[in-house]
Design a protein that fits this description.
This protein has helices at about 1-45, 50-60, 65-70. The chain has two domains: about 1-45; about 50-75, no CATH class. The longest helix is centred in the N-terminal third of the chain and has 43 residues, at about 1-45. The N and C termini lie far apart (about 60 Å). It is mainly alpha-helical. The chain has three helices and no strands. This is Putative mobilization protein. It comes from Magnetofaba australis IT-1.
């Protein structure tokens, strides 16, 4: 009986992991498509988007040093209060 319960628990865990992975994949696909759309706006300079505006927006938004470096942004100053 315990073996059956353990088996069902493993199966449930596997199903949940697959569902989480599928959701992560959907989320990443959405982010990718949003990025593609934004890049097309910048490339065509439509709706007021330009490379400069994008960099300004990213500069205000990004906090992670690795992310900032990806876009050629300077590191943020550390506040050691």
């Amino acid at each position: 009986m315990r073996e059956k319960i353990a088996k069902y628990q493993r199966e449930e865990r596997d199903i949940l992991q697959k569902q989480k992975k599928a959701e992560r994949n959907r989320t990443m696909r959405k982010h990718s498509l949003m990025g593609e759309w934004l890049q097309s706006q910048v490339d065509q300079q439509r709706d007021g988007w330009s490379e400069e505006k994008l960099i300004d927006v990213l500069d205000a938004f990004l906090r992670n040093p690795r992310d900032r470096k990806l876009f050629g942004l300077p590191e943020l100053e550390q506040n050691n209060d």
